[in-house]
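Ticket #4471: structure output looks truncated?

Reporter: J.K.
Steps to reproduce: submitted the chain below (262 residues) through the standard prediction queue, then opened the result file.
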Amino acid sequence: MENNKHSSRWYQNLWAALIFFTRLPFWRIYQSPQSSYKAVVEFWPLAGWLTGGIMAAALYLGSMVFPWPVAVMLAIVVRLLVTGALHEDGLADFFDGFGGGTDRDRILAIMKDSHIGTYGVIGLILYILLLGATLCCMPPRIAAIAVLAADPFAKLVSCSLVTMLPYARSEEEAKNKTVYRKISVPAAIGLALQGLLPMLLMLWLTSIEWYFVMVVPYMVMYFLYLLIKRKIGGYTGDCCGAVCLLVELSIYLVISSLLFVK
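Returned output as attached by the reporter:
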């Protein structure tokens, strides 16, 4: 009975993650209970297999019928549609809050505001330009494999915020009225498998130096962790989304740099 109950809970949490992190109509098939959304980060990298896989397919297939820069931009549009620009919204709020806020309360208030400011607009433009430019620097096959690996791996790295910091607001003040639960040891093992397997496959297929591709993202995450801890003393959903995108971008920057210097 207990095993069946645990299996059901695992299924509910996974389904909640797919509903939460994508805009695909999984909710039409099954509705997870609200309590399952506290555990969605435990399947965040697995959701990245789906979002990264769709973008990778759009990149590779698009390169067959469009000029490479056009295929890259279309693939970015596809991912934005699949995810509902969830993390991009967090990135804009992160730039607005940390760029325009002078203290903890002001930063949190700005990030909760639904309006986008100058820092958010400029941050998103620069992010999209760098994302498109780095992918354009890679051959289509390498770019597709890189996206398939970097999406889950960046989500794995970003999950560290949930374990290293408390939630910066109360549950009632949270945007989605849900605070992620602390990650247990079994969940951490599952996260590691979800995030590392695609990355190890990419390194094997491309022969790219692993120490740069895997160390630099953690350095970026740690720098952002120190910034977030100093400014607001805890994480928010916007912080998680922003860290995820910036860590993922650092992977593409490293790969494009390694390909350029060869």
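Triage note (M.O.): checked the attachment and the full token line is present. DSSP finds eleven helices and no strands in the chain.
Status: closed, working as intended.
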